[in-house]
Structure formats: C-alpha cells, structure tokens
TrEMBL record:
Gene3D superfamilies: HUPs, Tyrosyl-Transfer RNA Synthetase
Domain of life: Eukaryota
Name of the molecule in the record: tryptophan--tRNA ligase
N-terminal signal peptide: none
Organism from which the protein derives: Sinocyclocheilus rhinocerous
EC number in record: 6.1.1.2
Keyword line: Aminoacyl-tRNA synthetase, ATP-binding, Ligase, Nucleotide-binding, Protein biosynthesis
Single GO biological process annotation from the record: mitochondrial tryptophanyl-tRNA aminoacylation
Main location: mitochondrion
Family per similarity comment: Belongs to the class-I aminoacyl-tRNA synthetase family.
C-alpha cells in the first residue's frame, strides 16, 4: 500500500466546493492507503496577505473542519505545514533547480496574479513549495510500465487524456484537474534533482480527487472560493440551514424556468444540479428527472434541503470541536511530530546529496 499526501489552505472555513471536490475523497482514502497525510498548508496561505490573529483562528478552524468531515487522526497524519520546517527547506533547494519561465505559465500564478495585478515571489514559487510538500515524503514510485507509457505518450496527450491516464494508474497525490500542471512540476523537479545529484526521489503520481468543480453562487463562471468577498457566493460548512436556504435561493440562474443540465449555456442552474447530485449521491440525470415539472425557484428549495441534510451534522461537529482549542492544538502537535519523523531522514539525505556538510 502506498502513501497519500494532500493539503488545504487555512484561508477560512472550508466550503461545499472543498468538501465535494476534495475532503469527501480524502476521507475515503483513509480506508485504501496505509499512510495518509493531510496538511493544513499555512505556508501556502501567506502567499496572499493574512491577518495573523485570523490565520491562527483559521488553522484551528480548519483542523476542526477536517476532523468533522471524517479525517481520523488515528488513521491519518493531520498536521500544520509550518510546524515541519523541512517543507520550507526542501522548497528552497528545489527552487534553485527551477527556471523562472517554467513557473510563469502555471495556473495558480496566472489566476491569482491577474486578480491582484501583481503577485508576490511566494505566489510565483507556490508550486515549488507544493512539489516539496509531496517529495518530502517520497511517494509514488511509478512502476516501470507506467514510466514507459508516460515517456512515450504523455507529451502527446491533451489535459483530459492525461488525467484519464493518471487515473488508470496506481496514484498517490490527490489533485484537482487544475492542479495537474503543478504535479507535473513536482515530477520534473524529482527528475532534475535525480539527474543533478543522485537517483533519490521517486516521481510522484496523481490521484484525481474528484472532477467536481463547485461554482460560485453569484458568478457561476468562477469557482466557489473561501476568500470570495461576496458573502452569498459560498456555502460554508458552518452555515446554518437558514444561511444555506438564503444563499441557494439567491443563487444566480437565468431567465428559463425549466431545470436542465447544460453547463456551457446554463452554468447557474447546472451548478445547482451538480451540487444536488453530489450531496444526494444521485446521478445528474436522476436529479434532472426528479426536477421535472418544477421551476428553478421551486427546485432551489429542494437543492437547499439536500445541502442542509449533508452539512448539518458536519456543522454541529465543527461547533463541538471548536470549543476545545487545546485539544485541537495538541492533535496538530502530535501530527507534526509524526510528519517530522518521516521528513527528517529524507532531508538529512538531501542535505548530504547537495553537499551541505
Ligand atoms: N469550488 C471548488 N470546487 C471543487 N473543489 C474545490 N477546491 C477548492 N475549491 C473548489 C479543492 O479544495 C482543495 C483545497 O483547496 P485549497 O484551500 O488548498 O485551495 P483553493 O483551491 O485555492 O481553495 P479556495 O477555497 O478557492 O481557497 P482560496 O479562496 O483561499 O483560494 C483542493 O483540492 C481544491 O482543488
């Protein structure tokens, strides 16, 4: 059994998109893999300005949310990234093996630097830190046939075909489709390091962590985000049933009253349909059939109710866990200790290979 690593930024309470696109599958991975590591990636979060007091709160809130969703600290290593200093150290070494043009076209930089007009050096090198997060735990040994397929075919495939190929293999790093290029960077960096120093890092493999992208309720052309300033755009895991009903009722749809699933031409109503399908465990077709005869106003009530049913137990559990900050801190400290015990020997070897004596 292989190991799994993934991370989430403590930039606020997680939302329905984080849950359906990542956390739900993180929970399931605990049953399939022997070592499962989930990191609250606070080093990543400061690539955008963060208020220190708020960041501290968000880290503990994120820990409470992950536990409430079903991350079990007896089966997973749950830890705060900055508490394991090897992440930053390896990131520096890998950054020295990367060129500026290699990073310029990666999605995180393109998306977030555009929003801000300019971005920090940290935002630019974000994918290098991501590569360090993964490589530090030496995952994802590819079998030789995978290497052969990849080397012959990979560069000729389009993104969707690459995702399908990655899905077919035994894979270890849960990533969204938009993160595939970042994982490719980690693969490249492993290769570059091995060429420059010595065969050391196995190339990490991707595990597609859900193809569902939940869209903003106010602007279905963009994804639902923790940091979206529009309060009605995001359904948080801590939202009360009233909050959820209000947000879904106000969700942007269009002038057609029928409920159909046409993501290109009707992104708003299609977003409702796919959220409804995901939370109720039904297919999109089943959900559309169920909505026959309803207008979008009536349908919104059904969707809101289904979301409330899914999120209500999680919200109550977050509330309970939040009340004991000391317990959360001690869980994170124990997680960091375990992560450190895996990362430290890897970094000792890396330091030797680089020549740091
Ligand atoms: N809208 C979404 N739909 C599906 N999956 C999503 N994820 C994020 N938004 C959606 C997935 O959640 C995991 C953790 O994400 P993250 O917090 O590390 O980074 P992010 O993608 O930048 O998330 P946010 O919510 O948009 O945060 P902010 O506002 O801080 O940038 C990832 O697997 C991600 O794919």
């Amino acid at each position: 059994k292989a190991q799994v690593f993934s991370g989430i930024q403590p930039t606020g309470v997680p939302h329905l998109g984080n849950y359906l696109g990542a956390l739900e599958s993180w929970v399931a991975l605990q049953d399939k893999y022997s070592t499962v590591m989930y990191s609250i990636v606070d080093l990543h979060s400061i690539t955008q300005p963060q208020d220190p007091q708020m960041l501290r709160e968000n880290i503990l809130d994120m820990a409470a949310s992950l536990l409430a969703c079903g991350i079990d600290p007896t089966r997973s290593i749950l830890f705060q990234q900055s508490q394991v200093s090897e992440h930053a150290e390896l990131s520096w070494i890998l950054g020295c093996l990367t060129s500026m043009p290699r990073l310029r076209h990666l999605p995180q930089w393109k998306m977030k630097s555009k929003q801000k007009n300019e971005g920090s050096v940290g935002l630019y090198t974000y994918p290098v830190l991501q590569a360090a997060d993964i490589l530090l735990y030496k995952y994802g040994q590819l079998c030789s046939s995978c290497v052969l397929i990849l080397s012959r075919l990979y560069s000729q495939l389009c993104v969707r075909e690459r995702v399908m190929l990655l899905l077919c293999r035994s894979t270890h790093v849960p990533v969204g489709e938009d993160q595939i290029q970042h994982l490719e960077l980690a693969q490249d960096l492993a290769r570059i390091f091995n060429n420059q120093y010595e065969e050391f890092f196995p190339e990490p493999c991707a595990l597609l962590s859900g193809t569902r992208k939940v869209k903003s309720l106010r602007d279905p052309s963009s994804k639902m985000s923790k940091s979206d300033p529009q309060k009605l755009a995001t359904v948080f895991l801590t939202d009360t049933p009233d909050d959820i009903v209000l947000k879904i009722r106000r969700a942007v749809t269009d002038l057609t009253s029928e409920v159909t699933y046409e993501p290109e031409s009707r992104p708003g109503v299609s977003n409702l349909v796919s959220m409804h399908a995901a939370v109720s465990g039904q297919s999109v077709e089943e959900v559309v059939r169920l909505a026959e005869g309803m207008d979008t106003g009536q349908y919104k009530n059904v969707v809101a109710e289904a979301i409330v049913q899914t999120l209500q137990p999680i919200r109550l559990e977050i509330q309970r866990l939040r009340a004991d900050r000391g317990h959360l801190e001690s869980l994170l400290a124990k997680g960091a200790e375990k992560a450190h015990s895996l990362a430290a020997p890897v970094m000792t070897e890396v330091r030797k290979l680089v020549g740091f004596y």
